[in-house]
Amino acid sequence: MGNLSIILLSVAVFMAMVLYLTINQDNREKWVGIAFSIASLGGLLVYGYAYSKSPDMGAVEVLRTVIDTGRMFAGMNNVAVFTEAVGEGSPWHIMFWGAHFLAYYSMASVFILVLGKSAIKKFRSWLLRINDVELIYGINESSLEYGRTVSEGKRVSVVFVDTDAMKWEADVRQIGGLIYTDPSALNPDIHLIKRLGIKKGKSKLHLTALSDNADQNFDYAKKLLRCLEKGKINPEQTGITIIGREELEGMRLLAGPGKYGYGQVKVFDKTELIARLLMQKFPLCDVVEFDEHGNARNGVEILLVGFGRLGQEVLKKLVANGQFEGSSFKVRVYDPKFEKIDGYFRYRYNAMLENYDIKFFAEDGRSRHLTNYVLDNAETINYVITAVGDDELGREIATDILDLFHEKKRVVPVYQCTSDSVWQYRYGEERKIWSLNDANILYGGKMDDRAKEINHFYHGEEGDLERQWAECDYFSRMSCRASADFLTALFKRLRITGDDKISEEFLENLARTEHHRWNAFHFSMGFATMDEETLKKRAELFKTDTSLRISKDLSARRHACLIPWDDLDALSEYENKVTGKNIDYKQMDRDNITVMLKLLADT
Question: Is-contact 487 513, C-beta < 8 A?
Fold first, then answer.
């Protein structure tokens, strides 16, 4: 039994070393260097000690020590001379063989690194048969960062598909991935599915389409989907994360009754996700002081530099997340070309621009106009963002603004939104970066966890949470996300937990804030207030169609509830009179607060 144990343990150690050398590429050069140094020092010690026992100690023994230490790295040893010095069965033999093992490890690692690329590739290809597969279409800095985070600590094999392999080969190899550049991978066919080791009921395949070309991403997703259907792969085994417009692409790719599709679909607009990341990491409620009853003591005053696609999305999120009972809201936007690029935005979000204090200046972020504005309003500005579309220019503007605040003896962080990350600048501190390519965001959908819980709650907490979210329409998803992001941050700011008992006055103020937020969200989604004449016309239509929601017209983006809190009772009374229902719009806002309190208590 003892001999068998030694054999089994030896096999286990050997296989563990091979697996480590084959799979774990991160920091390998560092660990090889450490192993080499320890082995060298250990060899000099054990052989130096052995030869120090020689009666004729001299230059020859020094040379023999150096030579035997070197021979260790060729897999050879001189155990006899060491045994003669320390004796048979000495515990010092552990040190002797430990030094030889590290020498063998360092040389084996170098051998695999230099000569074993083909073997590594074959081994990683074999792992596709037992691992889940993350197929990443498009190799760039963002997808590499994403692939690196996906591969850490998960039973996932990462495979990149692109035509440009040579440029990224070393980077992909370092994270333990594979690159496919052949026609079968670039234009997916059934051979690719077999090659990836995906079989019906066995393993999972997740596609992440991160090519710089959004149209190519969608085309590739459709081609792969046809292959999966041909291979009779269960939709539950598949998933996709893709850049695009959620309300358009999402439902077209999702499996449904009588329709083959991906089991899980995450479609995201990068600019929308960056704006959400900004609000989640740096919520506007953090710049507001609140009294003991949840009333805001100061206003939110924002400086936004840049009004391209990203700046526009950031502005919508600022409006949706910046409304609090007792507070004011003010945004000043600087962009020298805003009048040439804001046509659609003004058309779609005109009601938002009319209902909030938002003003635009056709000035550069480095202009005298902006400099004077910051200096004149340094005491009240409490949130600053740059989103100019150029990282270096954005950084220059951000650091200049920091200097202006410093002169006025104010500490106001500046946030820079880039194409795939949010940067934070604070005077005298190093820049901090939060990347969109975090696997918890893209792969795990971490940003939507609380939103899914809210959606599940309104389904009666029955059924599968993930499935309900997958089948949720775009607007409802956005509504759940907006509520989750805002209330999670606000409750944290107010130090409210699910176990807290809050006063009626506190609850009422939170409900008022929730109504402010609800209004702002709808305005940021392109809604406008339904006028009285339209409401009456819909009330007449209700007489012949009782399924009609008279206060809401989703297709026309009109809602009668987009009014001040104090006007909600009259609207509730009117709608109840027309429909015979028992609607209380103020109570709905209160209920939203209690729902979040319940979710907090359950977590």
Answer: no
